[in-house]
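Async update (no meeting this week)

Hi team, since we skipped the sync, here's where things stand on the single-chain job. The sequence we agreed to prioritize is pasted below, unchanged from the tracker. I ran it this morning and attached the output directly underneath so nobody has to dig for it. Comments welcome in thread, and please keep replies under the output.
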Amino acid sequence: MNDERFVNKDELLLPYNMIKLYANGAFPMAEDDGEVNWYLPETRTIIPLDGFNVPRTLKKFMDECDFEYRYDLATMEVVKNCADRKETWISTKLINAYKGLHEIGYLHSVEVYQKSELVGGLYGVAYRGAFYGESMFSKVTQASKAALVKLIERLNQKGYKLLDVQFQTEHLKMFGTLEIPFDEYMNLNQSSFEHDIKFD
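Output:
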């Protein structure tokens, strides 16, 4: 008799199961067929909240632009904009899972508006003292970068301890990202749970 236990992948997308997976260092990505898998890469990328960098040109741009910033006003709209690209890891199934996290207060967004139109933003999952950044989008120059600056400001204001951005990219490198081994990441992750922080 085969006693191997099979896990229903859809059950992993139930809100509280997702939070457990994030807390254990995993994050979701959909494959080409729309199915969602969870990943635990050996190297993780974080932005140190006490040592992040804002490029001088971006700071000057933000001082002079007409952007307006909001938090959690249109979170699911941000998610759908992030998914609206030729190649995406955000499937319909994953969007629905994020909706479940949003309904119980764990999914959050930073939105960038220009003349009352949503032109950029980002979203992620917040659990205790950790924020797990997921994706960002931009319809106008610098909007997603400005959203990230506002996210970091918000996290510092609230006292968050960890900003996980999963993978290193050229887009993120300018903010002072660090690539660290998974064990070191998990130590930071677990330490952040000692702080009960609310994003809103």
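Quick observations from my side:
The domain at 9-192 is CATH 3.40.630.70 (Aminopeptidase).
DSSP finds seven helices and nine strands in the chain.
Reply here if anything looks off.
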